[in-house]
Amino acid sequence: MNNLRQKILKKLTYRIAEVSSKAGEGHVPSALSILDIVWVIYNNFININLIKNNSKKRDFFILSKGHGCLAQYVVLEEKKMFSKNLLNSFCKYNSKFGGHPDVNKIKGIECSTGSLGHGFPFAAGIAYGNKLLKINSKIISIIGDGECNEGSIWETCLIASHHKLNNLICVIDKNKSTDRALKIDNLEKKFDSFGWKSIEINGHSHNEIIKALSIKSKKPIAIIANTIKGRGIKFMENNPEWHHKNINKELLEKIKLDILNQ
Amino acid sequence: MRSQFTKTVTELFEKNKKIFLILGDIGVFGFRNLLKTKPTRVLNIGILEQATISFAAGLSKIGFVPIVHTIATFMVDRAFEQLKLDFGYHKLNGNFISVGGSYDYAALGCSHHCPEDINLMKNIPTMQIVVPGNSAEFHQLFNQSYKKKLPKYFRLSSEENKLNLNVKFGKANILNQGKKITVIAIGPVLNFLYEECIKMNLNLIYYTSIRPFDYSVLKKIKNKTEKIIIVEPFYEGSITNNVINFFNNKKLHIESISIPYNFLENYGSKKEHDEKLGFSKKNFTTKVKKLINN
């Protein structure tokens, strides 16, 4: 990762912690596991101006694991989709920014998610429609490995492969959050067996993310991204205690120092 | 009604290039011609209701007008959350056409019954709910509303009202103006009560839309009504709150002919269930007479 990217990612990691700390809300580790992926999607693939203009020819990004929305919010903020002050209201009563992304309130959000297993089939519908309309676009959806417990994920895999939706990319955030409940191994083989083109990557390597998102195939593409839940904040990394927990002021200071020293 | 649904949608396909029909592996034979002539916009998607509804929402997001058709319980019960969030909360246009409401599939047992669909759909604030009384009414109501940018639930029934009416989406019809007792009938229940209402000089209001709910007709009978019978061919209570809220503090006696909150554990025919549950001329007249004497 070059220095500029590193600097931006550190800034965004801290911003997630800061916004969450102010609100006393948010799924911080779930946002941090996908932050690199969300950044690459918006920075390298999606034309943000087409989103701003609501162009029919735009690419779509749908965060099916909606509880990771802080990653999407801070990236959209960095891309100047909205002014910085707005995100400071995160989870306040009248805020546009809640604990899950809301299409009715936030420019740049394509689908309201939260309940798992909804955004991915929604993305498949867009992918089917755009193929029908002969619009050359990428429809990218991030799902969680825990979300793979949901039947609708595998229903969507069937639909997408049957209809050869090769404009649909599913990034699976494999942060092992589901291991304690219902472990899902061999995701690559599972997606392959459903007729997808699968690839396993390091979900924090920008080069690997870029390479995977650039794959051309006749099949829909599954990117199994191995990630670290809480990535970038050492005491949170792979610590389930932090799944949905407040960051107090002292800890926020500690996070600031830790990030600067990395 | 089901064959009318096929005809109506097939006609609309010629006029509207945004219509997208999704079949949950039912009604495929009826749409065989459309499947051949418009294969890209007619999809027999398979038996996966949850993903189907979200998928349809994705299509709606980019401007298609989805029509989703499957058995009521599999659509409403199984995919309720998808209807609630992906269409209801998103306020997207979608048309959900069910068959097998209540006990139309009487012999198939509880797994295929769905008397709860209307009350469940009412819990989705933006869901528009339509209960046509016969095929001609379905044709009118669907044509009037399918483009509206909200989700809409159309309940097809195996029962057909014989009366020919002009109906409007969101509007009720006053079919008879009588005295004191008011019958509020919803959808395909007119055959056993229409003539009785005329004979017994009862107010008869007929609803095909449950949402939007037409309050204007209630205004017309507000001062003449003390006793109301709601006839609703599904679980009880579908419009009771609307009526109570409208009449506010007025003292009312409300009775209903509806399905009580029980599982229907018998099989047989729809007609047998109708008789047992009181959707019959005999039960209706008995109820009215009791109410008159009360």
Label this structure with key terms.
heterodimer; A: 262 residues; alpha/beta; Rossmann fold; 5-stranded parallel sheet; B: 294 residues; 5-stranded mixed sheet; 12 helices; globular
Order of helices and strands of chain A: HHHEHHHEHEHEHEH
Number of strands of chain B: 12
Radius of gyration of chain B: 19 Å
- Compute the separation of the termini of chain A in Å: 13 Å
Which superfamily, in CATH terms, is the homologous superfamily of chain A? Thiamin diphosphate (ThDP)-binding fold, Pyr/PP domains
Average pLDDT metric of chain A = 95
Series of H and E elements of chain B: HEHEHEHHEHEHEEEHEEHEHEHH
How many helices of chain A in DSSP terms? 10
Strand order of the largest sheet of chain A: 1-2-3-5-4
The CATH topology of chain A is what?
A: Rossmann fold
Characterize the largest beta sheet of chain A: strand count, sense, and whether it forms a barrel: 5 strands, parallel
* CATH class label of chain A: Alpha Beta
Biggest sheet details of chain B:
7 strands, mixed
How far do the termini of chain B sit from each other? Answer: 39 Å
Helices of chain B, by number, come to 12
What would your notes on this structure say?
The complex is a heterodimer of chains A (262) and B (294). Chain A has 262 residues and is an alpha/beta fold. Chain A has a single domain, classed as Thiamin diphosphate (ThDP)-binding fold, Pyr/PP domains (Rossmann fold), CATH 3.40.50.970. Helix content of chain A is 43%, strand content 11%. Chain A has 10 helices and 5 strands; from the N terminus they run αααβαααβαβαβαβα. Chain A has a 5-stranded parallel sheet with strand order 1-2-3-5-4, sandwiched between helices. In chain A, helix 2 crosses helix 9. Chain A is globular, with a radius of gyration of 17 Å. Chain A starts with a helix and ends with a helix. The model of chain A has no long low-confidence stretch (mean pLDDT 95). With 294 residues, chain B is an alpha/beta fold. Helices cover 36% and strands 22% of the residues of chain B. Chain B contains 12 helices and 12 strands. Chain B has a 7-stranded mixed sheet with strand order 2-1-3-4-6-5-10, with helices on both faces. Chain B has a 5-stranded mixed sheet with strand order 7-9-8-11-12. The longest helix of chain B is centred in the first third of the chain and has 14 residues. Chain B is globular, with a radius of gyration of 19 Å. The chains are: A alpha/beta (262), B alpha/beta (294). Chains A and B meet through helix 6 and helix 7 of A and helix 3 and helix 5 of B.
